[in-house]
Amino acid sequence: MSVIFNEDGLQNINPPCVAQTFVNHNATLYKIFKLGSKQYIGQRPSLKNLYAGDVSRLNALSETLREKLGIDLFGVDVIVECETKRYAVIDINVFP
């Protein structure tokens, strides 16, 4: 994984690769584990903000994912953008 700050940083990348916008999120990653209608939420440190939440909606988010994906056992990594407080799902792990 690389954080690229400008076009010069693209010279060090070898395709194929995936690009994603970095979102400032106060260095907190929320890990949600879902088992049917139950959920468990944990936090872990993440990358610091790159410039010179409210978790009450996480239940609604994980429940919507459960319904839309049609699965009952999964984990979700979520960050909350500092400025807008928007949620960003960055990883979903399905358990067999």
From TrEMBL:
Which family does the record claim for this protein? Belongs to the ITPK1 family.
Q: Which Pfam families match?
A: Ins134_P3_kin (PF05770)
| Inositol 1,3,4-trisphosphate 5/6-kinase ATP-grasp domain: residues covered | 1-56, 58-96
EC number of this enzyme: 2.7.1.159
According to its UniProt entry, this protein's organism is Mya arenaria
Which InterPro entries did the record assign? Answer: Inositol_tetrakis-P_1-kinase, InsP(3)kin_ATP-grasp
Domain of life here?
Eukaryota
Q: What enzyme category does the UniProt record give? A: transferase
Obligatory cofactor(s): Mg(2+)
Q: Does the keyword Magnesium apply?
A: yes
Annotated keywords: ATP-binding, Kinase, Magnesium, Metal-binding, Nucleotide-binding, Transferase
What this protein is called in its record is: inositol-1,3,4-trisphosphate 5/6-kinase
